[in-house]
From TrEMBL, chain A:
This is PRC-barrel domain containing protein. Coiled coil: none annotated. It holds the Pfam family PRC. Residues 1-23 form the signal peptide. It comes from Teichococcus oryzae. The lineage of its organism: Bacteria, Pseudomonadati, Pseudomonadota, Alphaproteobacteria, Acetobacterales.
TrEMBL record, chain B:
This is MFS transporter. Keywords: Membrane, Transmembrane, Transmembrane helix. It comes from the Bacteria. The keyword Membrane applies.
Length: 157, 398
């Protein structure tokens, strides 16, 4: 009795495992049928040359820097925050950054969006062209909503 | 049974330096990992692992400290582990070492806190424990105040990693203080092997333990998110002086705790535990209401003084009640572990809850909710908590 029950549950487990394989099998044929776009890449016939390997562009170490996690200095030269993300538009051009701003010993940190134009990159340091007073009451950056980027203050009048 | 002056002073300094060591491991870890280009998801995972380890370790660590006779050795091992976890963070900020650091720190903290309380109990006995715990809290908050100031400054002006190097360095004076506590002064009463009602389940059936665990959870649920939320409000509203105000918001409650804790312990010894609990916990709804209503950043510093009043209450009363409620079975550290778990659960939920309400509604609504939970905590203590002071214990002066 016990062994036949075990075999039944073994078979049930095998069936469960086999389901995705069975489900996956017909998929390629259904995909190929409606395709009007360029046909899926198949193994090239022996006469065609394979695609060439990727080229190499050597960039000297001192000419580039990583920016995620990089310190951003304020107008006075003191570190005011770190870059946590870069915002790019649909063409891939950088529009702004998300900055972890302010705080003391980690307490009071805020996430702010800052326009790319407010950053200046020189000699390995990144400087934000806005003071703490100018960023007072600036709304926080939230994912899923319109990003509010801090940019140059509107001219008076 | 009066312990030698050397042991008493060494215990004071032990509390001071341990608080220093633990200061860096708060929200600052997230800042440090950000500068190491960790993503928010990765940081969240590492911190959650630390929190989970802490919560899972509370009760087992309590059992461990109960079972071991040499409480000083437990504290020694725990401090060494914390030093190691600080070095791992500072020197190897990549995935595996940081995760190891979080786990190590979580477990070691769960061993360290009951060990220090157990050492205190072994040194002075139950009758004078209230006042001794008040002194512990005083030195711990002084250590926390100094460390918050110093580490905040070097975190900003030197480098974030230097905070953790300093943390590792500060374990050395902690160890020195620990070793200077004389073993002859300590009278450890271990739980008997087959104690009647000494198991975890028996503790859980005790009304006082259940009620206070509930209070501890509600307290931390109310309290833990108030300062971070207020900190964000300060950064938002204060401009150039923001960092100074936040530093003051961190230091002022510590100074209040340093000032009043021995008095809290004495009051609990002379007048009873319930009155202290009710007075101290009632600061929470008051603070929640004020934080919801007041916008001016400088006033927040004053409101943070109330934080000191309630924090002093919990810091002194938690180990004191653990001692009271385990008179019969001496499962002091297990009870400390239980209360620690309740505190951990409250703290974990607090920040998420407050963050959610703050973004859905407004920070003021979040403060009001936290204050309401604080009110619940006060009412629970007022109506359900039994008095655990024994009449004959009130007259001892050490």
């Amino acid at each position: 009795m016990m062994t036949s029950n075990r075999r039944m549950s073994d078979i049930r487990w095998l069936a469960l495992l086999a389901l995705p394989l069975v489900a996956a099998a017909p998929a390629p044929s259904t995909e190929e049928a409606p395709a009007e776009a360029p046909p899926p890449v198949e193994a090239p016939p022996a006469s065609e040359a394979p695609l060439p390997p990727a080229g190499r562009e050597i960039v000297p170490r001192d000419t580039v820097r990583r920016i995620l996690g990089a310190d951003v200095k304020g107008v006075s030269g003191m570190v005011v925050g770190q870059i946590v993300n870069v915002l790019v538009d649909t063409e891939g051009k950088a529009v702004g950054i998300v900055l972890d701003y302010g705080g003391f010993l980690g307490v009071g940190k805020r996430r702010l969006g800052v326009s790319w134009s407010m950053l200046s990159f020189n000699k390995g340091s990144i400087t934000l062209g806005l003071t703490r007073d100018q960023l007072k009451n600036f709304p926080e950056h939230r994912d899923g909503e319109d990003a509010v980027l801090a940019t140059a203050p509107a001219p008076p009048g | 049974m009066i312990p030698s002056r050397r042991s008493r002073r060494s215990l004071d300094w032990l509390n001071f330096f341990v608080a220093d060591v633990q200061t860096g491991f708060g929200p600052f870890v997230a800042v440090y990992l950000t500068t190491q280009a960790w993503t928010e998801v990765q940081i969240g995972f590492a911190l959650s692992l630390g929190t989970l380890t802490t919560m899972l370790s509370q009760v087992p660590a309590g059992m461990l400290v109960d079972a071991v006779r040499d409480k000083r050795r437990m504290a020694l091992l725990a401090l060494s582990a914390i030093a190691l976890s600080a070095v791992l963070l500072a020197a190897f900020p990549s995935r595996l070492p940081v995760l190891a650091s979080e786990v190590l720190h979580g477990f070691a903290s769960c061993v360290l806190n009951p060990s220090i309380a157990a050492i205190s109990l072994a040194l002075v006995g139950r009758e004078a424990l209230g006042e001794r715990l008040g002194r512990n809290a005083r030195y711990a908050s002084l250590g926390g105040a100094v460390a918050a100031g110093v580490m905040g400054l070097i975190g900003t002006y030197v480098s974030p990693a230097s905070v953790f190097w300093l943390t590792a360095a500060l374990t050395l004076p902690s160890l020195v203080s620990l070793m200077r506590i004389r073993a002859e002064d300590m009278h450890v009463v271990r739980p008997q092997k087959k104690a009647v009602d000494g198991r975890l389940l028996d503790l859980l059936k005790e009304r006082g333990i259940l009620v206070f665990a509930g209070c501890a959870m509600l307290f931390t649920l109310s309290n833990a998110a108030m300062l971070p939320l207020a900190g964000v409000a300060v950064t938002r509203a204060a401009g150039e002086e923001a960092n100074l105000i936040i530093a003051a918001c961190l230091v002022v409650p510590q100074l209040v705790v340093a000032t009043i804790s021995p008095w809290v312990g004495r009051l609990a010894q002379q007048r009873g535990r319930r009155i202290v609990l009710i007075l101290g916990f009632s600061m929470l709804p008051l603070r929640g209401a004020l934080l919801a209503l007041v916008e001016e950043p400088y006033t927040l510093i004053l409101i943070q003084a109330l934080d000191g009043l309630s924090a002093a209450t919990l810091n002194v009363m938690l180990p004191l009640l653990a001692s009271d409620l385990t008179r019969r079975n001496n499962r002091f550290n297990l009870c400390m572990g239980l209360f620690g778990l309740a505190v951990g659960v409250g703290a974990t939920i607090s920040n998420s809850l407050a963050g959610l309400v703050s973004s859905l509604s407004s920070p003021a609504a979040a403060f009001a909710l936290l204050g309401g939970i604080g009110l619940l905590c006060t009412l629970l203590a007022a109506f359900a908590m039994p008095e655990t002071r024994l009449e004959h214990e009130q007259n001892d002066k050490h």
